[in-house]
What does this fold into?
Amino acid sequence: MRVRDVHHSYRRRVVLRGISIELQPGVLAGIVGENGAGKSTLLKILSGELRPDRGTVHHGGRIGYCPQEVVLNDSLTVRQHLEFFKTAFGLADLRRAEEIMETLNFAAYLDERAGVLSGGTRQKLNLTLALMHDPQVLLLDEPYQGFDWDTYQRFWELATKLRDAGRSVLTVSHLAHDAERLDELWQLREGVLDAHTGTSE
Ligand SMILES: Nc1ncnc2c1ncn2[C@@H]1O[C@H](COP(=O)(O)OP(=O)(O)OP(=O)(O)O)[C@@H](O)[C@H]1O
It folds into this structure.
């Protein structure tokens, strides 16, 4: 994925002031920044959900986008969500989705309605829906929010495995405590990206 000179404002609030970034295959990268720094705005632009005021985003292959806001239908079960996305992605089966569910340890909830799931379990489903079509570029917005420690570890094992299989993985977070797990880490501040140098935000 190649991003060149992306700018974005919401009316007079300037959020991104010239973001350029290159995401190679087989890289696990992170962007950190304070609340309101513009991380979600940038991911929305990279995923194609939002059009930048200026600048370009080029990518090859499938994108997997896990937004910060969990987008689920409370009246559908986990299984129904998977079936819906299987059709939307044109998948032959749910093999990958089932593998991810096993990894994240929530296969037992297949027939529960999304509306009764805990926050962490909803996030597991959110993440599964973003990854089940085996995207080449993964854009993950605070993907582990609400995860318990064991699931948090499993999330990183999954992200590392995908990186090792040649996927590009980009996670955004307000904390830099995962720095040692990442191949590249940037800091978003005042609308621009710099190499992250500090140990925490
Ligand atoms: N749809 C919108 N309309 C107007 N302003 C917005 C909109 N979305 C975001 N903003 C503003 O843009 C700025 C950046 O927001 P964004 O959600 O991208 O930040 P963030 O770094 O992801 O924050 P957080 O860590 O809290 O999730 C904030 O000041 C926010 O209030």
